[in-house]
Specification:
There is one protein chain. The chain has three domains: 178 residues, 3-Layer(bba) Sandwich (FAD/NAD(P)-binding domain), CATH 3.50.50; 127 residues, FAD/NAD(P)-binding domain (3-Layer(bba) Sandwich); 83 residues, Enolase-like, domain 1, CATH 3.30.390. It has ten helices and 26 strands. The protein is globular. The model has no long low-confidence stretch (mean pLDDT 95). The structure holds flavin-adenine dinucleotide (FAD). Flavin-adenine dinucleotide binds next to helix 1, strand 2, helix 7 and strand 22.
């Protein structure tokens, strides 16, 4: 195959956000070869963000799962995307074939690994008791929703995004909620202390007990197979009839590793999202990739990242320029109660912060590395988030001094730069 010539067929392993988008973007770009999208889940490709939010409380989601679907079944027929249910167990790189657990096999011209991540589980006694949940799939969310309907006391282990989002829904449904977090503050790995404190206050004000700096030692049963109590390492015990473990996700790399591909906390890809094999790419939660801006290797878990990766791979496979590398600005959101947190950019260690507008629970924190803006965390300030994304994408200069001036706004700064320094209009 000459460089730049599209492969005759593309097989995508995993039909989550990244796998679906790879197939969809290939067709959007006019790719006419065979596309096989293989899903280990017995469902049409669906989006995960509502699983820890609206899905748990909104009855509209109960009607056959259609609210979650990324596209209806007819889409795959119309686009000639072969949606295959099954788990890929083996990649034969020499023969360019993948094999499924049921023994069937598919040849590929190019293979895209979009295997995502799996929820981490607690490694303590009692972790398999009834009423103990993780949350990654629609099936998990359905089971969690059923448990929540009957629960009176929920313990959430881990105050990351999924733990906090579920805690908010559980409180809204009238459940007593205790959040147990090993770090000294919620969201410690992902937001600055100022934003963490805001979310700690928000959850405490809603009546949730937030225990930071605590770890789980064991889960104790009620004698009938269900969970009754969460025992902490300090010896204290929390009564619970529902436990959600929200302690992060591990990338699914086994398939790649068994095929001899490099793995470094994710499937290793270069800035073109190619593995060491020129016929295999990896996208989304399962992939670690070099960040063009900082040079550091990253693995991100977000819709934006999975979609951005997928689009780049589709462009590359349909004759995109050889210089094409992945350099999208990361962004993310989380909904808790009536509060929306949006993050633009990436904080890999900041040394300066400027907080904009602190009125009525709405603010933005600008994070600086020296004289460079690296990320903006916005709470109920969608306009700031959009302006921050534009500023960061275009690398518009902004230092903490200028951001601290009275009357400074991100929108104003963007507009001023557009007028004064030729920043392109939208
Ligand atoms: C509850 C929840 C809430 C979230 N909320 C947000 C949010 O608010 N904002 C945000 O930006 N992101 C959110 N995310 C993260 C976002 O959903 C993920 O980053 C995104 O789904 C990643 O897409 P992916 O394609 O890499 O992986 P996934 O969507 O996980 O898809 C991977 C698929 O591959 C399948 N698979 C794995 N191995 C095989 C195999 N061997 N054979 C066949 N199939 C296989 C899996 O079964 C799975 O269906 C949330 C995630 C969860 C779980």
């Amino acid at each position: 195959m000459a460089p730049g010539t599209p492969p005759a067929s593309v097989v995508v392993v995993g039909a989550g956000q990244g796998g679906f988008q790879t197939a969809a973007s290939l067709r959007d770009r006019g790719y006419t070869g065979r596309i096989t999208l293989i899903s280990a889940e017995d469902a049409l490709p669906y989006e995960r963000p509502p699983l820890s939010k609206a899905f748990l409380k909104d009855d509209a989601y109960l009607e056959g799962g259609a609210q979650l679907w990324l596209r209806p079944a007819t889409y795959y027929v119309r686009q000639d995307i072969d949606l295959v249910a099954g788990t890929v167990t083996d990649i034969d790189r020499a023969a360019r074939t993948v094999r499924l657990a049921d023994g069937s096999a598919y040849d590929y011209g190019h293979l895209v690994l979009a295997t995502g991540a799996g929820a981490r589980t607690l490694d303590v006694p009692g972790a398999r008791l009834r009423g103990v949940h993780t949350l990654r799939t629609a099936q998990d969310a359905t089971a969690l929703r059923q448990s929540l309907a009957a629960a009176r006391r929920a313990v959430v282990v881990g105050a990351g995004f999924i733990g906090l989002e579920f805690a908010a829904v559980a409180r809204e449904s009238g459940c007593e909620v205790t959040l147990v977090e090993a770090a000294e503050r919620p969201l410690a790995r992902v937001v600055c202390a100022h934003t963490s404190e805001h979310f700690a206050r928000l959850h405490r004000a809603a009546g949730t007990r937030l225990l930071c700096g605590h770890e789980v030692a064991a889960l104790r049963g009620n004698g009938r197979g269900g969970v009754a109590e969460v025992e902490l390492t300090d010896g204290s015990a929390l009564p619970a009839d529902l436990v959600l473990t929200g302690i992060g996700a591990a990338p699914r790399t086994e398939l790649a590793a068994a095929a001899g591909l490099a793995v470094d906390g994710g499937i290793t890809v270069n800035s073109r999202l190619l593995t060491g094999d020129p016929h295999i790419s990896a996208v989304g939660d399962c992939a670690t990739f070099p960040q063009v801006r900082s040079g550091s290797r990253l693995r991100l878990e977000s819709v934006q990242n999975a979609v951005g990766h997928a689009r780049l791979v589709a462009e590359r496979l349909t004759g995109g320029p050889p210089s094409l590398t992945y350099d999208e600005l990361p962004w993310f959101w989380s909904d808790q109660f009536s509060t929306t947190l949006q993050i633009a950019g990436l904080d890999e260690g900041h040394d300066g912060e400027v907080v904009l507008s602190e009125e009525s629970g709405a603010f933005s924190v600008l994070l600086f590395n020296g004289d460079e803006l690296c990320a903006v965390e916005s709470v109920n300030r969608p306009g700031d988030h959009l302006a921050a994304r534009r500023l960061l994408e275009r690398r518009v200069p902004l230092g903490p001094g200028e951001a601290s001036e009275p009357g400074f706004t991100l929108k104003g700064h963007l507009a001023g730069r557009r007028r004064g320094a030729g920043v392109p209009a939208d």
